[in-house]
Design a protein that fits this description.
With 267 residues, this protein is α/β, with parallel strands linked by helices. It has 2 domains: 123 residues, Orthogonal Bundle (Methyltransferase, Methionine Synthase (B12-binding Domains), Chain A, domain 1); 127 residues, Cobalamin-binding domain (Rossmann fold), CATH 3.40.50.280. Helices cover 51% and strands 15% of the residues. The chain has 13 helices and 8 strands. The chain has a 5-stranded parallel sheet, with helices on both faces. Strands 1-2-3 form a 3-stranded antiparallel sheet. Strand 1 and strand 2 form a beta hairpin. The termini are far apart. 39% of the residues are buried.
């Protein structure tokens, strides 16, 4: 019996109960977000809804093997790659943000969710009948002196799941390179991830990127978003370094960057 059908059994004359026991999250949160669905008897079984629930739980359990079984069986039962990306993967990334507000979700779970979203999205897009148009280009990296890349990698995975094209420059990136690569790749967003306060506020970080954009009359075309520990401690710090916005996590980064892309002047 496959993983989707194993989750279904009759409990009363009125309902079909679909559930599986959570490993890492509370019962209350599990009831809201994990694979728990009540369907009226005789109503057609909602395959997509159940896949979403099962996928979300497997994400929180960091169970990669189960996730791929869910995706494979969804495809085998007729779900389109496009539906998997836009109805399962992308909402699951957003779901991580909602659940994070209700309980402590650790960095490992965020990283796992974003990297799987990136990986599966890439696999599914290759099977699309029509390749989707990317909504925009983003340059991302850490500033000079900052060698902490976990947060950047989480954000990158989330952005790719939202159909945003990401150019990851890596760690310890000079302000000149951020701007140079943004121009070269016609990117409307420069994302700067900082782990340390001094790298976030240093003269060779976001402040210099802003100065270069101003000197080259690119402020309407290229927006700056920042993120990382210093900005979580001081929510107004992004204003001090002259960024256009900041994001608390990768999920929010996807939403905020999508909005910034809409406001940016096109190349």
């Amino acid at each position: 019996m496959d993983i989707l059908n194993r989750a279904v059994w009759q409990t009363t004359n009125k309902f079909i109960f679909i559930a599986s026991k959570p490993k890492k999250i509370s019962k209350r949160i599990f009831m809201n977000f994990a694979p728990l669905v009540y369907l009226k008897q005789k109503k057609p079984f909602n395959m997509t809804t159940n896949i979403i629930k099962l996928y979300n739980q497997a994400i929180f359990d960091t169970d990669k093997k189960t996730i791929y079984k869910i995706i494979d069986e969804a495809l085998a039962q007729g779900m389109l790659p496009e539906e998997i990306v836009f109805e399962v993967i992308v909402p699951a990334v957003d779901n991580m943000m909602l659940v994070s507000e209700k309980l402590e979700v650790n960095l490992a779970q965020h990283f796992f969710a974003s990297q799987l979203a990136d990986e599966i999205t890439e696999n599914m897009v290759a099977q699309f009948k029509t390749v989707p148009e990317k909504i925009g280009n983003v340059i991302i990296g850490t500033p000079i002196g900052d060698f902490h890349g976990l947060g950047k990698r989480i954000v990158t995975g989330c952005l790719k799941a939202h159909m945003i094209n990401v150019f990851d420059l890596g760690l310890n990136i000079a302000a000149e390179k951020f701007v140079e690569q943004a121009i070269l790749n016609k990117a409307n967003i420069i994302a700067i991830s900082s782990m340390m306060y001094h790298t976030a506020t240093g003269e060779n970080g976001c402040l210099k990127v802003r100065k270069l954009l101003t000197e080259n009359h690119l402020e309407e075309k290229i927006k700056i978003i920042v993120g990382g520990a210093p900005y979580r401690f001081d929510h107004k710090l992004y204003q001090s370094v002259h960024a256009d916005a900041w994001a608390e996590n990768g999920n929010l980064a996807g939403i905020i960057i999508t909005n910034l892309l809409k406001k940016s002047q096109k190349w």
